[in-house]
Design brief:
- The protein has helices spanning 2-23, 27-32, 46-50, 55-89, 93-100, 107-120, 127-151, 156-163, 168-179, 181-197, 200-205, 212-223, 227-259.
- The chain has 260 residues and is mainly α.
- Helix 8 packs antiparallel against helix 9 (168-179) and helix 10 packs antiparallel against helix 13 (227-259).
Amino acid sequence: MKRRVGVGLVAWIYVFSILLFLYLPLVPPILFSLAPVAGGNAPTVHWYGELWRNPVLVTSIKTSLLTGILTALLTPPLGLLAAMGVRELRAPRAVLLLLLMPLFIPGVSMGLGNAFLFRLLNIPPSLWTILIAHVLWALPFAFLIILTAMTTFDPVYLEAAYVHGAGRLRAFLDVELALIAPGITGAATFSFILSLNETVRTGLVQGPLNTVQTYIWSTYLQVGLSPTIYALMSLLILLTVALVLVIRPMMARRAIRVTL
């Protein structure tokens, strides 16, 4: 019994150490975002208000949100079609590996490849080139999430729908799509997070536009870090955590539904 308690204690210490290693770098930006203003000593949220007085940053936020929303809307249907194709064709593992390969290609290489392709096609940098780069980045993740959701779907439900007279499309829309909807929603949320946090690929195809991440990076290179940048970084961290917390209950509900 004592040995089991000792092993459990060591495991908890190890897990806590890993969590500390993962999240410790995120603490300083949050602390420094509460830095007092000149002449004051108390922590303040003054720098969070300053964010909205910078027109360049406000435009960057709008660009990031618009790109993120469009990426979240466009990527899941593409991922769903790819997952359905893999399932229907019983594609070999080599095809799966090719679909997931962009995840392992360095961001600089993918970004330069996108920029070069756009130049060959005479497509000027714009919001659309940013959107294409983000969809290409998020698509393998969305495909993987939706394919995982589809693997937990029991085809018996489709057979039951066919028996009751439903066509293939109707059975898919009313039965399968409803049951894998949390996976699709999770893919959309994940695509939004990836788009919101993307920097390298965006910087190579954005042209005159800025997203929040490229604004932070360019500001850091030009003038260094400031309490306003810390506040912006903190908001992005908190937004990402909030979105992940939104995904988790949805996936949990899906797991319970499948179990039942």
